[in-house]
Design brief:
- The structure is a single chain.
- The protein has 133 residues and is mostly beta strands.
- It has a single domain, classed as Thrombin, subunit H, CATH 2.40.10.220.
- 8% of the residues lie in helices and 44% in strands.
- It has a 6-stranded antiparallel barrel with strand order 2-3-4-7-6-5.
């Protein structure tokens, strides 16, 4: 039996923090839990009874990404991104795993962060520009 070939071109950052999403700004936010993220997409879990997502649906996603530094320190950057749901996979009767592709990339690759102090300072400077939340 052959093994699955990895098609991802960018390493993901795996973490389990809250994520909020909504189809329309007039609706109540639904909460999920981040599974992994790249600069182009995110995967998260959510309860099936709280929302009725379908493939290619446009949603707004609110989330935070940890920025790793030296000695295990980190900062957090908050984002709001529009995204299209690409996959909705049932985990069990109550839980789905949703993969959403962002309409605008993140300004860095979360899963490919380096830990040098100079790199961390450069990333924080770049991210302090007012283009997101």
């Amino acid at each position: 039996m052959g093994s699955k070939r990895e098609r991802r071109i960018e390493r993901r950052l795996c973490y389990h923090w809250p994520v909020w999403f909504v189809e329309d700004f007039d609706e109540i936010l639904s909460q999920g839990q981040m599974v992994d993220i790249s600069s182009e997409a995110a995967a998260f879990t959510c309860y099936t009874y709280e929302t009725c997502l379908f493939p290619s649906q446009l949603i707004t996603i609110y989330f935070s990404v940890p920025l790793h530094g030296l000695g295990g320190s980190f900062a957090v950057r908050n984002f709001i991104r529009l995204g299209h749901t690409r996959r909705i996979d049932p985990i069990d009767k109550a839980l789905n795993r949703v993969t959403a592709q962002f309409t605008e990339r993140l300004p860095f690759r979360p899963g490919e962060q380096t830990c040098s102090e100079a790199d961390m300072v450069a990333v924080l400077k770049m991210l302090s520009l007012p283009n997101d939340v």
